[in-house]
């Protein structure tokens, strides 16, 4: 029984070390400037929910102070749509290489939090597949 306990303890220590070291690495800014291609592109819809307990002028001042509009969207990330959703805030859909997802998340953590609560919905383009299925069913 003792060798099993020692093995499990060692395994737990190794896993903990891997988790803590990977979380600190995850916060480092990436050096990638990859551009989206059909093979690597994802869509990311971000809900920027306004803090409705504060006036808009105060929220905009905070965004400016934190450098939101200087940093977002980062160069090379395509803005597919950017709408105001009354009662919610703003809804932005981006097209970017999957490898840049962490970069976009980090920019929003640094520049949008406080003025907005954020929700993220990564997706992929299904339009061609869905329309092909529709066309096939219509025949």
**Radius of gyration, taken over Cα atoms and rounded to an integer in Å:** 21 Å
Q: What percent of residues adopt helix (DSSP H or I)?
A: 40-55%
Distance between the termini: 66 Å
Shape: flat
Q: What is the chain-wise order of helices and strands?
A: HEHHEEHEH
Q: How large is the count of helical segments?
A: 5
Order of adjacent strands in the largest pleated sheet: 2-3-1-4
Number of strands: 4
Calculate the mean pLDDT score and round it: 81
Strand content: 25-35%
Helix vs. strand class = alpha+beta
Summarize the main sheet: 4 strands, antiparallel
Low-pLDDT residue spans: 10-31
Architecture overview:
With 139 residues, the protein is α+β, with helices and mostly antiparallel strands. It is 45% helix and 25% strand. It is built from 5 helices and 4 strands, in the order αβααββαβα. The longest helix has 25 residues, at 2-26. It is flat and about 55 Å long. The model is unreliable at 10-31 (pLDDT under 50).
Compact description:
This protein is an alpha+beta fold and 139 residues long. The chain is 45% helix and 25% strand.
Write the layout of secondary structure elements.
Blueprint: H1 2-26, E1 41-50, H2 56-66, H3 68-71, E2 78-85, E3 89-97, H4 101-111, E4 116-123, H5 127-138
Salient structural properties:
alpha+beta, single chain, four-stranded antiparallel β-sheet, 139 residues, 45% helix, flat
């Amino acid at each position: 029984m003792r060798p099993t306990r020692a093995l499990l303890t060692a395994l737990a220590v190794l896993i903990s070390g891997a988790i803590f070291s990977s979380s600190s690495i995850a916060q480092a800014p990436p050096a990638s400037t990859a551009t989206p291609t059909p093979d690597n592109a994802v869509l990311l819809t971000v809900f920027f929910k306004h803090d409705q307990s504060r006036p808009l002028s105060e929220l905009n001042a905070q965004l400016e102070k934190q450098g939101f509009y200087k940093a977002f969207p980062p160069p090379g990330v395509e803005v597919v749509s950017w709408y105001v959703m009354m009662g919610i805030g703003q809804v932005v859909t981006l097209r970017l290489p999957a490898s840049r997802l962490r970069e976009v998340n980090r920019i929003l953590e640094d520049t949008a939090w406080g003025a907005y609560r954020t929700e993220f919905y990564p997706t992929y383009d299904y339009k061609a597949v869905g329309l092909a299925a529709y066309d096939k069913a219509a025949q």
